[in-house]
Design brief:
The structure holds two protein chains of two kinds.
Chain A (H helix, E strand, L loop, with lengths): L1 H58 L2 E3 L5 E4 L3 H8 L1 H32 L6 H9 L6 H11 L6 H8 L14 H26 L3 H9 L4 H29 L3 H6 L11 H10 L4 H25 L8
Antiparallel strand pairs in A: 1-2
Helix pairs in contact in A: 1-12, 2-12, 3-7, 3-9, 7-9, 9-12, 11-12
Chain B lengths: L4 H28 L4 H6 L9 H9 L2 H32 L5 H11 L8 H10 L6 H5 L6 H11 L4 H9 L4 H12 L1 H16 L3 H6 L8 H11 L5 H35 L1
Classes of the chains: A mainly alpha, B mainly alpha.
Main location (chain A): membrane
InterPro entries (chain A): ABC_transporter_permease, MetI-like, MetI-like_sf
Subcellular location (chain A): Cell membrane
Chain lengths: 315, 271
């Protein structure tokens, strides 16, 4: 009797052992499987994102030769030089001004467009397509359009300015106007994307809310202020942070319209990095600038994650 | 709820004025691309329409080559992203293994690193691999994408887990399940991501500027920059013709996929 129960216990023990082994094996197997599915992405992220970012930080403490190899370790010197260089400080200033000029205007115009295009009207689809069209226009093409519009003698904008009795403006050559002109181009380019996202946000608001407001006899602007804007706030928050991040990454329109000029007025940070690295071959100090850009974007993304309730942004 | 006629009229007026202002630059470029240089220089309205600008643009520049390159690059990136993102999304939804959550955070972390900030070492990597002026140099760095993975993950999550269990009982492996069940079911979001990937790749500017030194793989965006900088004679008609050619493929794609794109982007953004 006791032998039998002993055997049973033993049996159970060995069964458990086998069971454990199988489970462990399965665990390893599923781990390998998971890694296999993820490995292409992880490999590419490592080679083209994580390693380069670490390398950027490393390079920022060195001087380099023209091929990008490190020559002399200089510690924080690149950073000290940056923050005492009037050119870089101006670049930072221009970048922040640019964010200030572009982000609020882009969001307000896009919000206005999204609100009027959200009405249930016949043919509204046509207008939606037009409003989102700038999303399909590349930075190079958009810059070429605006290069002509800003043309001092033939451009359409100066025609209007002169017709109104003012003096012609040097849109891209006058230091007082160049950053404004770049901002106008950027706002126009960004509207398509922000409009599309905001429209999506509007469409996901429960129509029940409006119906009950209608029953209470609420007016159009009351509903806009008390239902639409509050319900849209997560989308608005998302759009604002993405637009800020995009503004920090601006490059193409500068390269085509002003090349950073006049008098470095439009030398925004990415253009400044590009010039320092690929025109002046100063990879060390260019890397230090890139680290500054990285920190700026890191802060923005962190704010977005913290306050944006599990929202995801994309490049 | 029906709207009063007066209110409707106000909305139509607002919609129309906004559309005219917003579309004016594009329309202007389109009209100019068919105008003679004489008309453009004198600032008059078009007196006649001509295709000369397009002919000149194609004759003076290897536009066909640029267009071909852009198509190859955009399609390669699109396919690469679809494959890598769907594989990764599958692992995050259907596979359970140790370290999965950690890897998920790694994916999130990638969104905090702007490509522009890591562009200097990236350029050196491509150069050391001898990938300057090659399609792989223009495309492979963009295959892995966190946003695309999250977008597909959202969609895969809606596939019932019972389906996976049933397939396991039937002895179907994970890869076959991914290929024959998950991908077909998630077709819509794959199309959305594909459209998005094509659009952004076609419009890429900084990287192709750095990673190409000659016409062999140069994309049409950089070609347009060349066209603009080399046309010193103020031949705006030719430049605009070039710009119109550049935007036509993406505009068509956008017009066809606008609804899907809007839904997809909002979903990926706000979940």
């Amino acid at each position: 009797m006791s032998i039998a129960s002993d055997l049973a216990v033993q049996n159970q023990d060995s069964m458990e052992l086998v069971f454990k082994q199988v489970r462990k094996k399965q665990k390893i197997k599923s781990f390998i499987k998971g890694i296999l599915f993820l490995s292409p992405s992880i490999l590419l992220f490592s080679v083209f994102l994580f390693y380069p970012m670490l390398r950027t930080i490393y390079l920022s403490f060195f001087l380099t030769d023209a091929s990008g190899s490190t020559t002399v370790f200089v510690g924080w010197q690149n950073y000290i030089n940056l923050f005492t260089s009037p050119v870089f400080l101006k670049s930072m200033m221009s970048t922040f001004l640019f964010v200030l000029y572009t982000v609020p205007v882009t969001v307000i115009i896009s919000l206005f467009l999204a609100v009027i295009a959200n009405e249930k009207l016949k043919g509204v689809g046509f207008f939606r397509t037009i409003y989102s069209s700038s999303m399909g226009i590349s930075v190079a093409a958009a810059s070429v359009f605006w290069l002509y519009l800003f043309n001092p003698s033939m451009g359409f904008l100066n025609m209007i300015v002169e017709a109104l009795g003012f003096e012609a403006i040097g849109w891209l050559t006058d230091p007082a106007w160049a950053l404004v002109s770049i901002s106008i181009t950027t706002i126009w380019m960004n509207i398509g994307f922000t409009f599309l996202i905001l429209l999506g946000g509007l469409q996901s608001i429960d129509s029940y809310l409006y119906e009950s407001a209608d029953i209470d006899g609420a007016g159009y602007f009351y509903k806009l202020r008390r239902i639409t804007i509050p319900m849209l706030s997560p989308t608005l928050f998302f759009v604002i942070t993405v637009t800020i991040i995009n503004a920090f990454q601006t490059f193409g329109q500068i390269d085509i319209l002003t090349q950073g000029g006049p008098a470095n007025e439009t030398n925004l940070i990415v253009y400044s990095i590009y010039r320092e690295a690929f025109v002046n071959y100063q990879f060390g100090s260019a890397s230090a600038q890139a680290v500054v850009l990285f920190i700026l974007i890191l802060l923005m993304t962190a704010i977005q994650f913290k306050f944006g309730e599990r929202k995801v942004h994309y490049q | 709820m029906t709207m009063g006629t007066g209110k409707k009229l106000i909305f139509y007026i607002l919609l129309t004025i906004s559309a005219i202002i917003l579309f004016a630059p594009t329309l202007m470029a389109l009209v100019m691309s068919f105008m003679s240089n004489q008309d453009i220089l004198t600032g008059s309205l078009p007196t006649s329409l001509t295709l000369d600008n397009y002919k000149n643009a194609f004759e003076r520049f290897p536009l066909f080559q640029y267009l071909f390159n852009s198509f190859v690059v955009s399609i390669l990136i699109m396919i690469g992203q679809l494959v890598l993102c769907s594989l990764a999304a599958y692992a995050f939804v259907f596979l359970e293994f140790k370290g999965r959550d950690l890897l998920f955070y790694v994916f999130i972390a990638t969104m905090m690193i702007p490509f522009e900030a890591s562009i200097i070492p990236n350029f050196h990597i491509i150069r050391d691999l001898n990938w300057i002026d090659t399609y792989q140099g223009l495309t492979i760095p963009f295959f892995a994408m966190a946003f695309g993975t999250f977008l597909l993950r959202q969609n895969f999550k809606m596939i019932p887990k019972e389906l996976k269990e049933a397939s396991q009982i039937a002895g179907m492996g994970d890869f076959r399940f991914y290929l024959t069940v998950v991908l077909p079911v998630a077709k819509t979001s794959l199309v959305t991501l594909g459209v998005y990937g094509f659009l952004t790749s076609w419009n890429m500017y900084l990287w192709p500027l750095l990673a190409t030194t000659n016409d062999s793989v140069r994309t049409v965006q950089i070609g347009l920059k060349q066209l603009q900088t080399q046309e010193q004679l103020n031949d705006w008609g030719v430049i605009m013709a070039g710009a119109v050619i550049v935007i036509i493929p993406t505009l068509i794609l956008l017009f066809l996929g606008q609804k899907k794109l809007q839904r997809g982007l909002t979903e990926g953004a706000l979940k």
